[in-house]
């Protein structure tokens, strides 16, 4: 089970990882994230970076490492990671990689409620979603191609993963839409009857009266 941490913002972890490489000021952190294309995998609010750094300093994870002056520009405070910050960074990142998080994607929520819509409507909505995902996949392939020319693969594996997940979702959506249009999915007769008559099918009512079997809990 993942630990409850003093800071939970993934941007804080991202900042610590960069500062583990070398001391930087917040503006340099933002520039480095842009150059590495991390806005595609981390929700980055560049305006909040200073607040994130301040919170990290407050908890003893980063500290002032010096001051940088370039020409007539204002001085910029450089921050470096502390030993406590390095330990937190390694533990936090290890947890994220090894322990599945309790996530509740809104698409899964929508799928769990879809019988309230007619099957044909759902099939059309799946087609619309599939078209949007295909555009996203094409855009990501372009981004991956550009980043791959500039960065080692180790820096773009998260983008590879995003693309793989989109491709997998597209494959499932196309298969599911085929079942809907060909009316081969189990339960479709009751589903259609519900929308034709406005009455809840007896089979559905019987399901509601069955003993509940607890589903596996999502681990936090």
UniProtKB/TrEMBL annotation:
Coiled-coil positions: none
Database matches in Pfam families: PadR
Domain of life of the native organism: Bacteria
Domain Transcription regulator PadR N-terminal: 15-89
The name this protein goes by in its record: PadR family transcriptional regulator
Organism name: Streptomyces gelaticus
């Amino acid at each position: 089970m993942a630990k409850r941490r003093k800071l939970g913002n993934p941007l804080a972890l991202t900042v610590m990882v960069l500062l583990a490489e070398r001391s930087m000021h917040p503006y340099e952190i933002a520039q480095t994230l842009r150059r590495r294309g991390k806005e595609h995998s981390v929700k980055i609010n560049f305006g909040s970076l200073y607040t994130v750094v301040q919170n990290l300093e407050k908890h003893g994870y980063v500290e002032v490492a010096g001051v940088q002056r370039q020409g007539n520009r204002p001085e910029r405070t450089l921050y470096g990671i502390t030993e406590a910050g390095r330990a937190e960074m390694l533990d936090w990142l290890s947890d994220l990689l090894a322990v599945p998080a309790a996530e509740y994607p809104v698409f899964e929520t929508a799928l769990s409620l879809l019988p309230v819509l007619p099957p044909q409507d759902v099939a059309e909505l799946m087609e619309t979603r599939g078209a949007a995902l295909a555009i996203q996949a094409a855009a990501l392939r372009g981004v991956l191609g550009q980043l791959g020319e500039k960065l080692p693969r180790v820096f773009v594996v998260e983008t590879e993963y995003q693309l793989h997940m989109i491709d997998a979702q597209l494959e499932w959506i196309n298969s599911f839409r085929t079942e809907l249009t060909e009316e081969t999915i189990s339960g479709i007769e009751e589903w259609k009857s519900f929308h034709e008559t406005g009455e809840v099918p007896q089979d559905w009512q019987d399901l509601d009266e069955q003993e509940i079997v607890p589903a596996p809990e999502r681990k936090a």
